[in-house]
UniProtKB/TrEMBL annotation:
InterPro entries (alphabetical): IolE/XylAMocC-like, Xyl_isomerase-like_sf, Xyl_isomerase-like_TIM-brl
Name this protein carries in UniProt: 3-dehydroshikimate dehydratase
Listed EC numbers: 4.2.1.118
Record Pfam families: AP_endonuc_2
Xylose isomerase-like TIM barrel domain ranges (all copies): 23-258
Lineage top rank: taxon: Bacteria
Gene Ontology MF annotations: 3-dehydroshikimate dehydratase activity
Enzyme class: lyase
Length: 288
């Protein structure tokens, strides 16, 4: 089953409570909410809100999205990792998201790469001991910025608790074909991020310094099925996964304005296209 979630990071500049967001998500057909770790930490002050509460709303929290350090003190990195795990467990999430360092694969020396790989191995083991999985996001400026580098990282760490949060747009940004990349990384893909851009030359709008800033530009951000990155081949593949009984969590990572309208529209269109793909897959299968 392909489950769709909204991200609390989409509402980082909104004055909205989690109960309000959960009520909206439920009534608009979302399966759950991806919880930004910054928000999860603040919600720790509200003990009535937890995994049991969100499940009573008919929703789930599939992943807590954090930023774990791959340099500096290992003791401090492990403390932050355990804290992220406790936040995830409070919400009954089974995944913690992080990034594969602060440098692109073409910017690191062999010794830097080795050190970051060792640190990721340590953090993955820490997450595994908490009964959870660690998701590395495919993202520019990290060791998971190309398919080749991502596969090398997965091979070097070689841990069943390590997976991939497959950000379709960023994979496309790297020059790779998203469908081919998805097939290559399929054994490790447990979560996807969907977002889109009007033109390739506007991708800088997703740079962290811009996207996290209230004054940052949102020019070029468009609904998932309306941008330069073609999602239909990916949706066709996910339709096949769903027909085969494969579970996958997908989060709609909208950073632009008018969040409620765009997320509602995106969800309806994506569910429609995915249903069409599933129907086509089943029709083709019927001829064999």
């Amino acid at each position: 089953m392909i489950r769709f979630h909204l991200c609390t990071i989409s509402f980082r500049h909104h004055l909205v409570s989690l109960p309000e967001l959960a009520d909206w998500a439920k009534h608009n057909g979302f399966d759950g909410i991806e919880l930004w770790a910054v928000h999860a930490r603040h919600l720790a002050r509200q003990p009535a809100l937890d995994g049991h509460w969100i499940e009573r709303q008919g929703l789930r929290i599939p992943m807590v999205s954090d930023y774990l350090p791959l340099d500096g003190s290992e003791t401090e990195a492990l403390r932050k990792t355990r804290e992220a795990c406790q936040l995830a467990k409070r919400w009954h999430a089974n995944k913690v998201r992080t990034f594969a360092g602060p440098l692109g694969s073409d910017k690191v020396s062999p010794s830097q790469r080795q050190a970051m790989t060792r640190r990721l191995q340590t953090l993955t083991q820490c997450v595994a001991e908490e009964g959870l999985s660690l998701m590395l996001e495919t993202h520019p400026g990290t060791l998971a910025d190309t398919v080749g580098s991502t596969l090398e990282l997965l091979s070097d760490i070689d841990h069943t608790a390590l997976g991939i949060n497959f950000d379709v747009l960023h994979v496309w940004e790297s020059g790779a074909d998203p469908l081919a990349a998805l097939k290559q990384l399929a054994p490790w893909v447990h979560h996807c991020h969907f977002k889109n851009i009007q033109q390739h030359n506007q991708l800088g709008v997703f740079a962290p310094a811009n996207v996290y800033s209230p004054a940052g530009t949102r020019e070029g951000m468009v609904p998932v099925l309306e941008g330069a990155c073609d999602y239909r081949p990916v949706l066709a593949e996910l339709g096949a996964w769903q027909s085969e009984g494969i579970d996958l969590d997908v989060s709609l990572e909208w950073f632009g304005s008018d969040s409620y309208r765009v997320l509602n529209s995106d969800l309806r269109q994506l569910r429609r296209v995915l249903a069409e793909q599933c129907t086509q897959t089943q029709a083709v299968s019927g001829f064999h």
